[in-house]
Specification:
three-stranded antiparallel β-sheet, SH3 type barrels, 7 strands
Length: 133
């Protein structure tokens, strides 16, 4: 991931948090709900992953709302509450007003919760998926 031209790195809160994530074709992938940090040997913190979805947003919200968000997401997605969807920073092609990935949405593999909602809620509604009569 590129650093600012000042050479002082980046401010993850300003440059990444809440930014839309788009794939290599400009398709929507999600939103940066949190970041994963890694400490280097020299003590510097670097962004190692982008976390997205309710599993990443819940802890950031905090309190009862955050706990409920995380618990419901974990229950419905079948993922551990402390394991939100993650995009490795190596997949980031650039960032600005949006975070651009060098990979496809499918390769980012962050659609688990959305897939569950589509398959178990939306498609279960009467008339959904049926063609015109």
């Amino acid at each position: 991931m590129r650093e600012h031209t000042s050479g002082h790195g980046m401010d993850a809160m300003l440059d990444l948090m809440d930014r839309q994530i788009v794939d290599h074709d400009g398709g929507m992938v999600g939103k940066v709900d949190d970041v994963e940090l890694e400490e280097r040997e020299d003590g510097r913190l670097v962004v190692s992953g982008l976390l997205t979805g309710p599993g990443a947003l819940g802890p950031r919200l905090g309190g009862a709302l955050g706990s409920i968000t995380t618990a419901v997401w974990s229950r419905l997605s079948g993922r551990p509450a402390d394991s939100p969807k993650r995009i490795d920073v190596s997949a980031v092609a650039g960032y600005g007003t949006v975070v651009e990935l060098a990979i496809s949405r499918r390769a980012a593999d962050v659609d688990g919760f959305e897939d569950w909602v589509r398959d178990r809620v939306i498609c279960a509604l009467p008339g959904v998926g049926e063609g015109p009569e």
